[in-house]
Amino acid sequence: MPQDIKDQVLDQVRASPVLAIQLDETTDVAQCSRLLINALFMSGNSVKEEMLFCHPMERYTKATDIFQVLSNFFQENQLLWDSLVGVCTDGALAMLGLQSGFITRVKEKSPCAIGTHCILYREASASRSLPAEMRDVMNLAIKEVNFIKAGALNSRLFKQLCVDIDSEHQALLFHTNVRWLSKGNMLGRLYELRQEVATFLDSQQKADVHDKFQFEGFLLSLAYLVDIFEVLNAINLKLQGKGGGGGGGGGGGGG
C-alpha cells in the first residue's frame, strides 16, 4: 500500500509542468538526522501538496550531502530538474551558502528555480529575540514553571491546590524550543494561574521567586508577553494551514 501511494504521488509529480519543494533536515528523539521533503505541484486546475520522501542522513548533513540525496531521488524516479521552479528551506548557512550551499547546487541543475526562506522559521527566530527586560521576565517565568513541574511532589501539591480552590486548570505547561508554539501556551497558562502560583510559592517558602512574581511590573510584563505570543501563535497556525504559504519544515509548530 505505501508503495502504491508513493507511485501515485510520483505519477502526479511527473505529469505536473512545474514543481516546488520544501525541505528540512531535523534530528528526532532517537538522535537520528532525517531529511524531509514536501512537494507542491499542479494537479488539474489546483495545487496539491504531498510528502515526497523522508530519508535518514546517516553521516553528515552538509549541503553536498543533502543535495546528493535529492539528486539520487530525482534520478531514481525520473523526475526532471527543469520542472523544479521553487525551493523553500529553513535559511541555514548550509542551505543558502553562496558558494556551496544547497540552493546554489540546485540552481546549477535548474537555473529557473527560486530559493526562499521559510516564513515560519523567520517568525520563530524573531520571537526568540526579546529585549533584555522581557528576556528576564521570560527566564523568571520559566524558572517558576520548572520549580513547580520539575518534581513529582511539587506537581502533585500544586494540582491539589488548584483542585481545592476550584481553579479552571490544574497544571502548568512546559515548553520546548523545538516546538515554537509551546512558549506562548506556557506563558498563557502561567498568567491564568498566577494567583495559584503565588500562593504555592509562598507555601513552599520560595520568598525570592515569590516576591518577584508578585511585583506589579513583572505581572504587567508577563501579560504583555502573553499577548505578543498569542498573536505570534495565531499567525503561525494560519501560515501552516492549506494555502498559508508557511513553507517547508514546520518543525512542530503545534506545540
TrEMBL record:
It comes from the Eukaryota. This is Uncharacterized protein. InterPro entries: RNaseH-like_sf.
